[in-house]
Structures are given as C-alpha cells and as structure tokens.
## 1
Amino acid sequence: MSKARVLFVSQALSPFLPESNIANISRYLPQAIHEKGKEIRIFMPRFGKINERRHQLHEVIRLSGMNMVINDSDHPLIIKVASIPSARIQVYFIDNEEYFKRKSLLADDEGQSFSDNDERSIFFVRGVLETVKKLGWSPDIIHCHGWMTALLPAYVKKIYNKDPHFSSTKVVYSPYDDVFSGTLDTNVSRKLTMDGFKKDDVHLLEHPNHSNVIKMGVNYSDGVICGPEELSDDVNAFIKSSARPVLRYSNPESCVSEVDQFFDAVLENKGALIEG
C-alpha cells in the first residue's frame, strides 16, 4: 500500500517567520507526520519579511512562469524553495512582486490590514494548487492552516474537483485566532465568481469578516482540527453545526498521533466526532 500524501498549506512557518502558534505547529507537525510514514509537501507565501539569503531560498524555474488572472489583472507566479534546517524537508514558497514584496505580513505598521489581502489569499491558494499540478503530485489530504488558506477548500471542492490531481482529495482545515481588523475587500465574492464560483458558493463572504472567512474554510472541508487557541463563539457554533469530523487538542507536542489517526479516519470517510 502506497504512503498517504499530505499537503500542508500555511500562512506562517518557522524558522522562516517569527515563532507563533501557527508558525510552530506548521513547522513541526509536517515533520512528525512524515516520520509517521506519510509523504508530505509544504507550501507558504514568500512574504518580504523572509530573509532569502539567510534561508537560502532559490527560484524553481520549471515551476515558475505562469500568469494567474486575479480581478481581471495578470499576476506572474514565482515558485521558490528552501529546506528546513536539520529536517531534510523542503518548503515551497508562492511569490509575486506585487502581493508579497512588502516587508509586513498582513497589516501595515499601524496594524491596518492590507486592502488587497483578499487577492493575496486567492493568489496564494490558486498558486499552491497550480504548482502541485505541475509537480504531478496528487495529495490524498490537504491540511490548511490559518485564515489566509480558508478559500483553498472551496477551490478544491468547487473549481478543481474535476481535475484528476484533486478529484479524490480530502481537505482538513485548522482555524486559529489570527484575527484581522475590519473585513476583506467587500468585492471578494465578485472576484471569486470571476474564477468560476457561483454566487451561492460564496454567500458567506457577503460580509467578509474574520469569522465568515473561517467559516468558508470549515464549510468546504472534510474535517476540522482545532488547537488550544480560543476561537469566537460564532466560529465554534458554526463548527459544531457543520457536522464535520472534529479533532480538538490542547497540547501541540502530544497531538501528533491523534492528528495522524484523524487523517486516516478522514481518508476512510469515518465521520466520528473526536473531542479532547
């Protein structure tokens, strides 16, 4: 029996970005799942804050060069790669000068979210899926971390569902307390319909605040993994009402076996609710 293939997609990963709950979990969980016997790939944005020289990022020419249309504008997709020190694990970076050159991650120095964060998210998740296709690698599970990846489950289920690379792919979503100020661009629903979504597919984003973005991730996922972070009552209620399999853990360091078993259960279409 071949190894299950798990694609990890995160908006933050240490040591490339400063340590945080999401960055640390996204760093150590893939390695631990790999050591459990699964084949993995990892993707994150190439934020301008990342020191390319220190981390030895380099462009992968054979994967770069595609133009993606976002809101009627062309945006070149650049793929870079680096290794996690001491882990012998590669990380793929989605890059674009307009979206990711700036030194701040998701907000300016005054804490105001960037007005194009919706397009940065769309570019990121589409860039991941298109690059995976170029790699000729079909993931059995995609595990998404953070609000910036919340649109990926919807793309897999509604836009890429007939692509042979993703037609059988399960998606697991992990929400965090990575709350952004205000809302995403209120035209995000229209931009998504330009990619092929129907209006009903993206109705949750009519008011694109953090809670509703997270709900998008949950709504199109096959399972939800929640860590020790506090989520809003609104999001918790939505997760409970979604009837998705749920894994809740309190200690990231001791949850690896639980996550591995949860992946297996999702692959086998076991719908048991796992609370811990």
Note: DSSP finds nine helices and eleven strands in the chain.
## 2
Amino acid sequence: MTDIFASDFLVFAATIMAAILSFYLAIGRVQKQAVAADTKAHSLKQYYGFYVSLWVLVPAILLALIWMFAADPMLMSAAKVRLVAAYPKLPESFLNLKMAQLGNIAAGYITAPDAVMAAQADLLRAAQDTADRARGLTLAAVMCVGFFYAFRRVSPELRARVLCESFLRRLFFLSAVVAILTTVGIVASLLFEAVRFFREISLVDFFFGTHWSPMTALRGGEAAASDEFVAGSTGSFGMVPVMAGTLLVALIAMIVAVPIGLFSAIYTAEFASRRVRNIVKPTLEVLAGVPTVVYGFFAALTAAPFFRDLGLFVGLDVSSQSALAAGGVMGIMIIPFISSLSDDVITAVPQSLRDGAYGLGSTRGETIIRVVLPAAFPGLVGAFLLAISRAIGETMIVVMAAGVAANMTINPLESVTTVTVQIVMLLTGDNEFDSVKTLSAFALGITLFVITLLLNIAALTASRRLGQRYD
C-alpha cells in the first residue's frame, strides 16, 4: 500500500512540477520574442504561462481520471477470470468474497491462506505495477505533446488572455452542467426506487396512513373482533406520523432560532459598534462549527432531563425523549445560519435609505422596521429557508433526543420521530435492499425532496410579491 501511495504521489508531483516549469518557460519565450521584435505582447505575460500550463495539465488530468476509472476494473476483471480458472469448483456466492480477499492480499493487508491465492496475488500485483508504469509513461507523453504544441504557438501576437478566459468559461459551464446532472441523477435514483415501492404499497396508504411500522404489518384476523391485531410481515407504511414529527421538530427549532438569530443580526448590523460586532458575530458563528453529534449529546444529557424535571415541577408529564428537547437544541444549532446570513443581508441595504428615513424624522427603530427590514426581506426569506432546510434534514439530534417512535401527535412534550431518522434506520443494518421495508426509505426521501422544493417555490414567490425593490 505504501508503494502505491508513493507512486501516486510521485506522478502527482511530477505533473505539478511540469505545469509550473511550462509556465515559466512560456513567459520566458514570449518576453524574448517581444524584445527581439521590439513589440508589445497582446496579453499580460502570465496569461501565456497559464495557456501552456493548461495544455500540459488538463490533458494529463483527463487521462488520469480515465485511467483511474478504467484500469482498475479491467485488472480486477482479468484477476476474476484467473481466479475462476484456479478454483473451478468455487461457488458463485463465494466469488466476491475471494476477490475481496485477493485484493487485500495484493495490497499487503493480509497474508495468503494458500499457495494458489499467493500466486494469484502476485499476478495481480505484477499487473498493477505494469499498469502504473504504463500510466506514468502515457502521462509523460501526453504532457510532452501538449507542451510542445502550446509552446510553439506562444508569440506576442497570440491572444493568450482570450484563450484562457474562453477555457475558464467552458470550465464554469461544465461545472454547472455537472451540478445539474448530479441533481437529476439523485432525483432519478430516488424516483426509480420509490416507484418500485409504490408498486407494492398504495399511494393512499402511504400518504394518508396514520400508522408507521415498517418492521411489522397490521392485518385483521380472528382477533379483530376483539379489537386486537396480529403482526404480519409486510409492514405498515403510513407516513403521516413521521411527517408530523418532522414538521413539529422543525417548527420548534424555527421558533427558537428565528427570533434570536434575527434580533442578534439586527443588533450587530444596526446598533453594535465595530469592536462589539467583531466579537459578537464570530462568537455566534462558533456554534456553526460544532458537530451535530455534540448537539445530540447536549440534547440527550442536558436538555431532555432539564425539560423533564421542569415538567415534573409544574405538574406536566414530559417524555425523556421529547420533541421539545430535540427542537430546542436544533434551534440553537440553526441560530448562526440565520444570524450570519441576516446580518449580511441587512448590512447590504444601502445607507442612503437609512439617511433618507432619518432626514424625514424617523427614529432608528422606525427606520429598521419600516425601511431596512422590508428592503432586506427577500434575503431574510432565503436565510429562513436555509434554516428550515437544515432543520428538516437534521438527523443526529433527533435520534439522540426525540427517539424513533412514530407517534401521531402534535404535543411537543411527547416522543416523535422524523423522516431522516427513519431513512437512516431503514438503510442501515443487515436489511435486504429489495425488500419493501428498505424501499420505503426512498419513498420518504422523494417525499421530503418534494416538500423542500415546494417550500423553496413558496419562499421565492413570497419574496417576489412582498419584497420591495429599491434602487
């Protein structure tokens, strides 16, 4: 494994060094030509260096990516053919296990159990070494071709700046296309598996059912006459209690986070001095860097017992794992997002609007309420939307503080569960991937995606209709 890492690092270092060397060689060439011809180069000298470096670096990166995704599968496929020939009586179910063992032996993690596996590991290791050498030589050849092609074109008349900017424009477009295709791929994968789930479970039962128990089903039997139900095997997939728990926890989190985050943003943007602002704002943003599992421990060990003891003190029955504890701690976690984004939005409001309001006799409070906040409303909606999305998608805090019971309730003092918690539970452990229980996680995922999308559309519509435009 050390040899493989050293080889990859050597190839990477050599590629970077070649790009840097080509950068300075191109600059030296264009300077000499400009002096010899007593003329001025079309572009700044660094653009000529970037032009040649791109021709050295980009083809090498593309080739390395192709090699990475193509070479290893081909080598493992050939090793699999040799392994089948070496173990003709090996069952198909053990073949993948043997292949994993062969890869670990070739990498040096474990020792070979027999001479046959040792020989196959030596063959695989030799093939990998040959592939590494071929990769290095091919990369060197590609970089040399790219260098000599670009280097010969370097001259003061070359529009290097235009070419570099054209490359960057195509790179940015490609990045946008990759981002869009990634989103489409995620949605398509969720939708494909959700369709498989809905072939087994009715849409009405899923979206309007009030009982969520994917491990067992409820079916009527002879005991139904006595109001008893017997556990079946297909599961009960009514998502209403799960979605209700998600919205309840998110609502509690927003009730905690929005006022504190917005008021702190107004203070730091409008009232605090520069010295106080430089202390308060970074202190609030420290909360954003705390891992969610730490918030989960805080919710389970501190917040939940506090709310339970407080409920006992006032005569209320508070669950040891309540939506109130999970939502409250989640709200604390979301405060930095709302505060930081709202502060930036409020600060971006032109000072001329404030000066105009003061000139008309408005107080500072009236200026903030009637001028600054309406002008910043679209940005504030975006901050709140980000906070809602973070609250809906949070998992760890709810697992540790709110529990996993899918209770049909809107009482914040009781235990609830959320969509993300159920997805984690359904997709972890020794579960069959093709079972209805596992496929229900994708149905929950696509439902959560649609709800988030609708929230985005509603927020954008509201910000466009209610947000005032200022020049």
Note: Residues 2-158 form one domain.
## 3
Amino acid sequence: MTVPRIAVVGRQNVGKSTLVNRLFGKRETIAHDDPGVTRDRVELEAMWNGRRFGLVDTAGYLHRARGVEALAGQQSLRAIEDAQLVLLVVDVASGITEEDAQLGRRLRRVTAPVVLVVNKVDSRHEEADVPLFHSLGLGDPIAVSAQHGRGVGELLDRVVDLLPDAPKASGRDTARIGLGEGEPDEGVSDEEPRFALVGRPNVGKSSLFNRLVGEERAVVFEEAGTTRDSVDALVEWPGAGQIRFVDTAGMRREIRVQGVEYYSFVRAAVAIDRADAVAVIIDAPEGLTAEDEKIAFRVLEAGRALLLVANKWDLVEDKDRRFKQLTEEATMLGRATVIRTSAVHGQGIARIPNVLLDLRRRWSGRASTSRVNELLQEAQGANPSPRSSGTLHYAAQVGTRPPSFVFFGGGRAPGPGYRRYLENRFREAFHLDGVPIRMRFRPRTRGRSR
C-alpha cells in the first residue's frame, strides 16, 4: 500500500522543520532561527502506533515572493497538491498574520483534510491565545511545542485518525516515534539502492537530480548555494525497481562553513555515509579542481562507490582533450568512471542510474577464496613482495560494502608502494573501478622461545 503523504506548510520561521524533526523522532531536516532556511521539499517516513506515513517539510510561504523564494514557494504548492493531509503551522506568539490568512484561504479550497497546528505553545500561559486561530476557518487548532514535544502525541493521534488507509508497520517499527520513545527508525528501507549526488556549489546537482527523478523536486536557481538540505526521491527505474536518489547542498571546505551552511555540510556528509554509491558532480569547463578531489576522497574514505559526473559538458570547447585529462585524473580516485552530462540538454543523464547500479553490484560482490589466493600468487610471481616484509601466503575476502581483504604471512605488513600494487591488481581482476578496497595484513607470529 502506498504510504500517504503529509505536507507541513506555513509561513517562514514558524517552526515547520522543528515540528517535522519532532514527528520523525530525530533531527533530520535543518531547523534554524534564520527565516527561509528550507527551500526544497524534504520527505521523510515516520510512524505512530504502528502506522506509517510520509512527512514533507516545505519552504516558508512568503507573500509576493521573488527569485529563489518564489521557486521554493512553488515546491510548497506542489507538496500540497500531492498530499493526503496538510498541516498548517502557525506561531502563537505572532498571532494571525496576513500570510497565515492567505494560506488559510488557499487551504480551505483543497480536497485533502487540513489540521491547524499552533506552534510554540511552550506553557499554559500561551494556551489562552490558541482559540483566536479559529478565525482561520480550518477547524479546532491543536496546540503544540515542537521544540519541547508538548502536544505532539495529540497531534499524531489526529493525523492517524485522518489517514485510515495508512499502512501498518511491523516489529520494532511500532514504537511511538513521535515522542522519542523507542529506537528511532532510519526512515529508509535497506533494500532499495540509495545513490547520493554531491559536489561543490553551483555545479548543477539539483538540475541533474530533477532530470533523474523526472520532476522539479529541487529548487534550481542561478545563485550558488540554493540547496540547503538533502532532498531525496524514490524513482521506479526500468528493470531495477525503486531507486532512491539524494540531492545534497554544495560542499565547501570545512573551515569556510558556518551558520546554516554548517548544517548543510553535515547533511551532505551524512548522505554520503548512507549511500551505496555516490556521484560527485564536477563543473566540466573548470575540470577536476582540488575541492572536487577532496570530496571524491571523502566518498572513498567513507567506503562508498564513486562515480564522476562531468556536468555542463555542452560548454566544453576541446572535448577530447578534457575527457582524456579527466580520465587520467580519475586513476588516482580509485579509477572511477567518468560520465559526461548536460543537465540543460539531458545529454548522458540516462546512463547514470545503470552505471550506479553496476557500481553497487560490484561494491556488494564477493570473490571466492580460491580466486583471491590464485590472484595473490600471480601478483607475487610478477612482482615479489619486499624482503623486509616477506612472502604473503594466504588471503581471503572477509567483507563487502566495500570489499575487504585480509592477507596472512610475512614478517611484517608491506609498505604503501606494494599495498598500492596489490590494490591495483585486485581492482583490475575483480572489476572494482570506482570501488574502494579495504586491505588488512596479519604477519605471522613467531613462537616464544623457552
């Protein structure tokens, strides 16, 4: 059964993201005192009393919005159209503003049920002002404090009552997640492939993301840093079933990151850690910069498969020379595959899912112990291990995601040069281009003398 969606809407700075985090059970979306932090539709899956539903955090409604704020507002309207239930969040301290009234008039015309949520009711003192919100014409308001969890249980009970077709969860998923009771669920199935798009600001990640998912899910604007939170979407891909793509905020050097950007950076790093494979988007006319290399190394260090996507390829003048240069530079990044794309024209984008799926398959693969040892003997026959370390006698693959190998024998572990040699031999033999390889060495132990 399809999980019903709940759109959380309201003007800027009323606490929508804080409420979504409270309903989800942990801090998953960026909540900040600055207005207008959320710009894209951020979707999470939550549950209450064994009922599953989707939460959609949206940008704050702004009257007569322009530029990026207008585009963010369009995302909010799409969320309302797609939702089976809408939560209109208002601020008890501010009272009813003109923007609240405008949203109220719009929501009175939608077919989905609407629940009016009066936020920031942190104590009984503020409860006296809650009845004033009846004038919005959206029924009885529910008073909550998203920051402290006050009234959230009552809100979730109302939500479940209005979504009778919400599919049931099972096992440990029946915990009362909204109040933080029990272990929070990750909100994402372990079965579906999960791919993240990362890169520097303004390289075209959101444009590629929208092309991949087939709709305008992420706000695209000429100003760098438009995306602030990680935005994900499930896509039905022919022959592969459901795939989850995650768009992320532009990653800058950590020492330059502060304020809202810090939380965006953390979310992007988490998206890498949760992904099976990661596409690092680079600006093709600029080539592979030092910042791009750092991001790619971060992916490999996290144990995730790596794909390099050279976007804006339509703007490259000497295409043959640039592609040769990128391919050579990718050798130092786990020999990652390079795909040329243009998000504007759609060039090369259809290749991305299949390449990522193949990367995921090889990242999850396991080689037989006999083949691993056969390859080890071949490698040492072509290039014997240094005398200082001694001969390696035996090896086995002990893990996947990423592939991990243990080598036994020798007096001590070989140096970096010979390790790179073995890694390259294993990468070539097992078709692990773009896949990080973990290698451990266990030298033989000498018996104690009596």
Note: The chain is about 30% helix and 20% strand.
## 4
Amino acid sequence: MLLAALLCYVGFTALCLSMPRHYGELLRRSLTESRRFWLRLTGWSALLLSCWAAVDADGWAIGLVQWFAVLMGSAVLLVALMPFRPRWVLTLAGCGTLLSPLAALNQLLM
C-alpha cells in the first residue's frame, strides 16, 4: 500500500500543478500549455498506477477499498498543506517520486 499512497500523492500534486494558480504559487513561474498537458498526463497516470498497485497488493476486493482510502488521505494531506505549508507540497512530492521505485521493488519482492 505504500506504493499506492506515494503514487496518489504524486498524482494529485501533478494535477494541482497543472492549474495556473497553484503552479504560480508554488513555483513562481507562468504555466505553459505544453507543461500543463504533461502535468495532467503525469497526474492521471500516477493515479491509475496507484490503483493498479493497490489491487496488485491485496486483490480487487480489499485493494479497491484501500485505494479509495489512500486516495482520500493523500487529497486531504495536499489540501491541508497548500494554505499553510505550500513548500512542503513539493518536498513531499519529490520524496514520493524518489521513494516510489523502492516501494515498487518491495512490493514485487513480497
């Protein structure tokens, strides 16, 4: 489930950054259309991969329920961090991106 949680947070962060307001607030630059497209594609891809990771870990019955819980938890974390600690959003997304391959390797070995 760690892989699903990391991918959910990274996906929601990418979708958040695909909005001009949040992109400008977090990165202090303007958002181009091509970058917006790639951020949306990355966000939705990460969310789909997180669903696959959850189902792969625990099966369809429990995996989907846990995936929805992780989906909500990562969204709440992102929404809570945005107004109070906006720089932590990018730090956590970077950590999630770096730790995802290790979590995938762990899930494959178990």
Note: The chain has four helices and no strands.
